[in-house]
Specification:
The chain is an all-alpha fold. It has 2 domains: 2-60, 434 Repressor (Amino-terminal Domain) (Orthogonal Bundle); 75-106. The protein has helices at 2-12, 17-24, 28-35, 43-53, 57-60, 75-86, 90-106. Helix 2 crosses helix 3. The longest helix has 17 residues, at 90-106. It is elongated, with a radius of gyration of 17 Å. The protein starts with a helix and ends with a helix.
Length: 107
């Protein structure tokens, strides 16, 4: 399932195997191997692929039919968020947590 989804996502985004390989720091033959199902990427590589194509890891792994179910998992962005969040007072942090929970529950 992953192999077909990866190939489809790559083609839909007009990305060659070489381009994807460069973004991931692997060889083109590695991407080719993933696409034919001979091997599989690491967990970290699956996350990076989801970031590149703007889809969820669940979608890439065939666990979701919705490719728009994207969760932002870029490590640098999350690190910056945690740094900024830690600068807030406890009251401000609690307010934001409650606001996010309320937002999610309304969807």
């Amino acid at each position: 399932m992953f192999s077909k989804i990866l190939k489809t996502m790559r083609k839909e985004n007009d990305t060659t195997q070489v381009e994807l390989a460069e973004k991931l720091g692997v060889k083109q033959s590695t991407v080719s191997s993933w696409e034919i199902g001979r091997s599989r990427p690491t967990f970290e590589q699956v996350i990076e692929i989801s970031n590149i194509f703007g889809c969820s890891t669940d979608y890439l792994l065939g666990k979701s039919d919705n490719d728009n179910n994207y969760v932002y998992t870029d490590n640098k962005t999350l690190q910056n968020f945690y740094v900024d969040f830690s600068k807030l007072s406890k009251t401000e942090q609690q307010f934001l947590v409650k606001a996010v929970k309320a937002y999610v529950e309304q969807k």
